[in-house]
Amino acid sequence: MIKITFPDNNVKEFEAGVSPLEIARSISPRLAKEVLAAEVNGAEWDLSRPIAEDATLKLFKWDDPEGKHAFWHSSAHLLAEALQELYPGVRFGIGPAVENGFYYDIDPGENKLTDADFAKIEAKMLELAARDEQIVRADITKTDALKFFGDKNEEYKCELISELEDGTITTYTQGAFTDLCRGPHLPSTGIIKAVKIMSLAGAFWRGDEKRKQLVRVYGVTFPKKSMLDEYLALLEEAKKRDHRKLAKEMELVAFSPRVGAGLPLWLPKGAALRDRLEQFLRKIQKKYGYQQVITPHIGNKQLYVTSGHYAKYGKDSFQPIHTPEEGEEYLLKPMNCPHHCEIYRAMPRSYRDLPLRLAEFGTVYRYEQSGELHGLTRVRGFTQDDAHIFCSPEQIKDEFLKVMDIILYIFKALDFTNYEAQISLRDPEHKEKYIGSDENWHLAEQAIIEACAEKGLNARTELGEAAFYGPKLDFMVRDAIGRRWQLGTIQVDYNLPERFELEFTGKDNQKHRPVMIHRAPFGSMERFVAVLLEHTAGHLPLWLAPEQAVIIPVSDKFMDYARNVADELEQSDIRVFIDDRNETLGRKIRDNQLKKMPYMLIVGEKEAQNGEVSVRKTGKGDLGSMKIANFAEILTTEVKEMINQ
Q1: Which of 124, 366, 380, 588 is catalytic?
Q2: What is the C-alpha to C-alpha distance for residues 403 and 385, in angstroms, rounded to an integer?
Q3: d(CA 417, CA 357)
């Protein structure tokens, strides 16, 4: 008999060799139907795989990320099986689960895949799923694996196998399809009930532009047809909320091939929106004792060599700028933190100076691949709402808690109520990916864990997601239609102060090393604006909208009155403009609705005679006529309530 410990610390005995699925059946038949994956002693585990010794066990259903991952990983294999039947000679690269579905990279050989093939592929996948084929795991030696996949002319699989250690290789088989894979997978394919092939894309083998370009087939599956229908409806809603479309309609941002890909141009209305966000955060930062600094857009290459950023991100940076001076090289700034370290070093520091909080809206540059650029969410030049706190080890937790307060205040003010926190730690199995001593990593990780516990924040822990110089706490926000975005981040760093030899004089009159906290509540102005636009569908909070009201005269003869209305409202700090285009009233109203204008003020003969405006509010319709001062009071009160909520 073996002892199985459940997440609630309940312990039950089972015969050795019992599978997680059998354990689920012993608890309830319903659980056995709903469970999709398992975790045994912290390791991913197939539901049908035996457990030989005492173990901790977690069972995952569809609502758990681990459950979806297993479901979509198995769906990737189902896709490959269908492609194998439909297109003889196709060869396979990799086929992982991703956040919303899965993909498989394939070399189609002589076959040509187009969008017209999607229905045929979906039908074949459903046909195979209906057979309810068992998905069987098997250990295989490296020699046998190379022979098996070599005989099938699977050159990409053989390349992967050649890099694996003997004794660690497994395959999964369903029907006539066998794949090299670590798993875990569903027990069988019958659980997959709804299939949709989403798109095709090009993907270089192993991300190397010098290697062959494969075809990446994206798909998504669900255990119920109704769930697929709901998902497709959300995608349609997402198209309406696409920030690229909204930013163009609202005249916020433009891109120009002459300026360069991934380099946004902020138009006057977009610049006004961005400025209000910056002023909002500056006000908060002032309250918490931050000091504003400004650093150059470039830096000597050696600065980033010292920090470790060049070794880590050099390939993703713009090429070095060579000056007339022999051997002198500069880089477009990829990070603000090395510059802030040098500001700290600019003068002697003592314990009385700490914590020192330096803040900057600093623009940085990274050479993202052209295929990865996407509107404002993936750009080559972006501005981080960056700050670095230099403090003593004893001050870390208190400073960390204050940063958490700032981030949560911002989320509340902007109506991001659905969020989760993730503690990102280093991968203990691959310490070579990180800089710094084990002792400093332990101290930094413990500070984050303790701060989250003290705040009562239910944060999940992810190994291997830390920055190369330290662990971090990331805030994942779900927008109005349920999509997950990473926004705020806080990182504890013992390593950059070491690399830059930062010091402060302690109470004991001895030199000590400060600790550095990196934080960015928005993340980047570009990404945050994109997420905010999609979250609100362009209907920005009234206090943040670049223009809060448009005045629409019904004809040119009421233009003077429209100017009087604008002057009076501007005296109340209300942002207005006059739509004086030579268009019909109906066209002006439609156009301003498209631009997500919060209020429209119609003025004609009646309004001019009575000193009034006829008010339309987006989403609410006509509010009737009212005195200009009354409208100003309504709008001002609404703004105050939003900011002070």
Answers
A1: 366
A2: 13
A3: 28
Q: Is the peptide bond before 355 cis (omega within 30 degrees of 0)?
A: yes
End-to-end CA distance of the chain: 58
Handedness of CA 254, 258, 263, 267 (dihedral sign): negative
Q: Per-residue pLDDT tens for 492-540? A: 888 899 999 999 999 999 999 999 999 999 989 999 999 999 999 999 9
Q: Distance between CA 115 and CA 199 in Å, rounded?
A: 7
Contact criterion met (CB below 8 Å) for 489 and 459: no
Q: Which residues contact 287 (CB under 8 A, 6 or more apart)?
A: none
Beta-bridge partner residues of 216: 105, 201
Marked catalytic residue, from 518, 595, 596, 616: 518
Catalytic site residue from 380, 472, 535, 588: 472
Catalytic residue of the set 312, 388, 588, 596: 388
CA atoms within 13 A on the CB side of 511: 6
Rounded to two decimals, what is the model's pTM? 0.78
539 annotated active-site: no
| Three-class secondary structure of residue 528 per DSSP | helix
Q: Which of 105, 386, 479, 579 is catalytic?
A: 386
Is 391 catalytic? The answer is: no
User: Is 430 among the residues known to form the active site?
Assistant: no
How many CB atoms within 10 Å of residue 640?
11
The residues, any chain, with a CB within 8 Å of residue 591's CB and separated by 6 or more, are 579, 583
Half-sphere exposure of 316 (CA within 13 A, CB side): 15
Which one is catalytic: 174, 285, 384, 491? 384
Query: In 3D, which of 530, 579, 619 has the Cα closest to residue 245?
Result: 530
Please choose, from the candidates 501, 393, 495, 492, the residue with its C-alpha nearest in 3D space to the C-alpha of residue 436.
Answer: 495
69 is catalytic: no
> What's the pLDDT tens digit per position in 169-203?
999 999 999 999 998 999 999 999 999 999 999 99
**Residue 384 annotated among the catalytic residues of the structure:** yes
Using only C-alpha atoms, the chain has a radius of gyration, in whole angstroms, of 29
Supply 497's token pair.
């102060």
Q: Three-class SS of residue 510?
A: coil
> What's the gap between Cα 402 and its chain centre?
23
Cβ contact 175:201 at 8 Å: no
Catalytic residue from among 181, 337, 391, 452: 337
For 104-147, give the DSSP string.
Answer: EEEE-TT----GGGHHHHHHHHHHHHHTT-B-EEEE--HHHHHH
Residue 337 annotated as catalytic:
yes
3-state secondary structure of 358: strand
Do the strands 549-553 and 599-603 form a parallel or antiparallel pair, or are they unpaired?
A: parallel
User: What is the C-alpha separation between 334 and 428, in angstroms, rounded?
Assistant: 27
